[in-house]
Amino acid sequence: MAQMGLPRHKAEVNTMGNRLFRAGLGGITIVFVGMLLWAMLSLIFMPRWAEVVSSALSEEMLYSIRLSLITSVISVAVVMILAISIGYVLARFQFPGHQLLRTVVDLPMAFPELVLGLCLLLLFGNEPVSGWLKQVGIDIVFSKTGIAVAQIFTAAPYATRVVYAAFRSINPRYELVARSLGCGQWGAFWRVSLPMAKGGLFAGAVIAFARCMGCFGTVLILAGGTRMFTETLPITLYLNISYGNLAMAMTSGILLILISLAAIVIFEILNREVVL
Amino acid sequence: MAQMGLPRHKAEVNTMGNRLFRAGLGGITIVFVGMLLWAMLSLIFMPRWAEVVSSALSEEMLYSIRLSLITSVISVAVVMILAISIGYVLARFQFPGHQLLRTVVDLPMAFPELVLGLCLLLLFGNEPVSGWLKQVGIDIVFSKTGIAVAQIFTAAPYATRVVYAAFRSINPRYELVARSLGCGQWGAFWRVSLPMAKGGLFAGAVIAFARCMGCFGTVLILAGGTRMFTETLPITLYLNISYGNLAMAMTSGILLILISLAAIVIFEILNREVVL
Amino acid sequence: MNALLEIRDLSVDLGEFSLRGASLAVEKGNYCCLIGDSGAGKSILLETVVGSFTPLHGKILLHGQDITDWPPERRKMGIVYQDYMLFPHLNIFDNIAFGIKQQKVPRKQTQIRVQDVAARLGIENLLHRDIKTLSGGEQQRAALARALVAGPQVLLLDEAFSALDVASRERMRGLLRELVNDLGVTVLHVTHDMEDVWALADQVAVLHDGQILQTGTPEHIFSCPRPGFVAHFLGARNILQGRVIDCDPSGLTCIEVGNIRFYSIDHAPSGQQVLISVRPEELALARNQLPSTLRNQLPAEIDRMERRGPLVWITGQAEGFRLQAAVTVTGAREQDFKPGDRAIFAFSASSLRIIEQQKVIHPDLALNASIKSHVISQALIAD
Amino acid sequence: MNALLEIRDLSVDLGEFSLRGASLAVEKGNYCCLIGDSGAGKSILLETVVGSFTPLHGKILLHGQDITDWPPERRKMGIVYQDYMLFPHLNIFDNIAFGIKQQKVPRKQTQIRVQDVAARLGIENLLHRDIKTLSGGEQQRAALARALVAGPQVLLLDEAFSALDVASRERMRGLLRELVNDLGVTVLHVTHDMEDVWALADQVAVLHDGQILQTGTPEHIFSCPRPGFVAHFLGARNILQGRVIDCDPSGLTCIEVGNIRFYSIDHAPSGQQVLISVRPEELALARNQLPSTLRNQLPAEIDRMERRGPLVWITGQAEGFRLQAAVTVTGAREQDFKPGDRAIFAFSASSLRIIEQQKVIHPDLALNASIKSHVISQALIAD
Which one of C16, C17, C71 has the shortest CB-CB distance to B14? Predict the structure, then answer.
């Protein structure tokens, strides 16, 4: 939000005190941001590219990429259904426990991923849920399905927040107008709210996809980090660092960074206002 | 921000279509949030408490807790200096590259922690930086210092965002008034902006502390996850899951969840408006 | 009751804003303007009528049928907001056709109906444009078309002209007046602009603090405002309390205030306590008694003179009360009045209105608590 | 130049708002009100003077010294905003003492100075209160105290009374007028409230689109506004273009518009093209020529009558141009005018002002483009 009419101090190049003050703040900023940039650029400029290419084409990397993509696409689909439902409920309905619901949905973002993974492991790995799952033949713990489940629980809060913001930014009077013209709640949602929130929904999906692809701690605990079985890109990075295979690790790191950057760029373009 | 004057649809309990619509959205919301809550509560209700207590008092856990606390306190101090400097520069000064600076500072939040860890490993583990560090006798890679460095880079973006929002929410006219009364830029910052942003600064420190305590991927890559050496709480959780020692893992999980919850509660109390 | 729309004792609580037992009836085809200060609950009333809020108490009746619990989609009302609220993802045609499409009317007929109403509003050439390419006035006409094309029983306007410039506003008023007459639609129009009231309203309702304080024709409300908020809000000043001492049905009513007698053409029974009011602009000032038909001529000392734009406001102090006159700058200059001068405050018996017959004395209205009221009401209107 | 504060050709570009070569001089001890429509750049001008923005061009001089590049802390100016801007983490005493503490004055003396100014502003009992416990008027008095206690050379007020209710506003005006006189401080006051101008200003400057269009005393600006924006903004109507055909220095100037002659007491050389203006409220309407001293009596056909509050605006169509008169409701009623009637529009030679002598003809001002201007300027002022 542009804060209209707020003045900003422009150039005043005169008193020693003011100059020192600005130099101090600027210096700290430049040193930290410089190191951060350098660190991020290391990943792009350091590796020998021939190694990166051969790593990228290795059987393990191709497996990992394919598995990451498949699980992420499935997870994003589920996440968006959840995010649209919960986001709309939060944005439009008033009910007791509204604030509690918001907090519970936001909680996983504040927890370390590892802890969320442990929680899911306890839920799905113990009775009664494990018994139910066995009856319907679904295996979540240490399985590929577990990857998707871990990704869904990790990414859903982020997508929900973006979608919620998108619905909230739509004046509910649009829906009231639609309803005064004869639409029911479903009609107003389908013909007005969803198309108006289009940008926010797509942005939420992009964020969800990036979170799914990059999800490490939760996947590691719930699905295990087994080579060539539950091996997604972050797992590949971790396993290969452990084996000392830096080229493979850097390759997956580069892929992950590209996905994150692409997501950020798309998100910024779509949704300047919703960005927090 | 409360959207003043926006109507909300209250109870209308009449047409079938409207009821079905609300039941659908509500159902999806309740199922997902229910599972999430159940998963999180499992960690608290499942363990046998005798085991948790003995785990908590084990040598390894006490070591891990102490190391986590020491590194986090140091990291938070450094993070707050960075966050105040960068947040104030972003909130008050206009310069070319302002948007770029904001984006670079925000980037680490969008990357998987693992990737940030790899970047830091490449920066500090290779020439020229590794040579410089050797000269001054600082060891970052696979060391306790590395834990703090990993935590600082992980937590700084979060704290910076909160502090930036706090400074931005202060009308710059307060500073202009202070300066018209004879303060230099430093005086206006010290006597007006810092005290007015107090709540935001404390909230930023709380967030930073929670992120430092829960930092896993970055610490794992940069400092290694060595038992009784670079073992922080998340590492304890991970190592004990690997060894199959669920009681220890759950104990560290419970500690981590309590820290996160405490941080959220304090943050919400301090800073209702800044929460994004 | 044959009111088309009736609101009975409606209470809605939204915290900051609320309705507290508002009642109003609008007859079929009537144009009712709802005025009041900001925060009075005007928009809430409108949105409760359209079905956005469930009231705590009270009823909304349409054709005598209780629709209080109906969802908005069944009420057949159209609503037009200050900020248009056109759907940004649809072009003008699809915006206007929105309500018809919902009724599953054949495409051909939809075309005809949309084009018809668009032509009447002068936007038939804009139908395939994106809403962002239209001016405010054009957008508001599209919004009006959208609300009317579905054939609403009641049209609700929420400050519908406030965002427009003066020229578009006048054009819109003309178009609306015509359309509303032709379609015979009943209108409830929330506004703070007195020009809307003068140009459009058959009926005015004054809302204050969640309650309807007075309803009537614009002329009636303006000349006989209820004392208290309504009078202040509409700029009535010079409210005095007196007692009727004589009333000749074929002649004038004589009212005594202190030991001064006033004459009014309004009637009230002898002995009755009354509040009387005369508008400052109906007072003339003179050096001496005017040999004229003006029945009320009161000597007073000029207390204060204040120029406000084209008028000079002159406050006079008589025996125990004050009168305020608004005269033109030329008038004041010709007579060369200065504070401290003695002057005759003169006005006709037809200018003096009996605005309330009362048994109980309103202590806050008695005599002259009204010196500052014109400033307050101006501030309210400007807001 | 012995102006205390001088602004020379100041340009500031903030995108949406900007100054484009604004110039203004305020003499020591003068009270200057800066008026203009919203978006004119009033606040920017103030904040550039206090040192918040670096201008692209132009200079700011204080006592003749160029302070354009000085930081705010060296300028010795006090600024008071509409929304008080009291520091929320300090109590009232510490807020007021803020500037003195910066000067490292001994504690005892700080106490005395703060209490002195607080007493003058009637807030001496509030010094140890938290700012949130104060009313708006009290907060604004504290903000004023804070700005004045440090002894500024120039006091800058940005809509300082806009957020107050009418009573506090009047009280503040009185206090300010007194304090400013006693301290001899120079004031630059941005306002949109004409009452501030009438009550306080020695000097008025009209800002429009980043430029100062006119400066002068309130009386001068109000009676001889520059044509174009200033005239519209201040509500001048009836701007006509004519040519001086005769000028007797001891008598009246005769100006021909079309083939009608007007008389004015203002002087201009014969043959000069001039713009003349008469305020609508200075016109009288009559059925027949008035046997009076009114030198200008023009027959015209009544075109349109509009009631606005206490006045009726009557537009008359004469040979080729229009005149607009504002008369009281009583006046219009007595004469029983209706659109279509013929009437005499009469006004004195002293009401007709020559507002510009010109060689070039302003095409947009010629004759009567001003029919709607009063509406526009009312909207501007209300805003």
Answer: C71
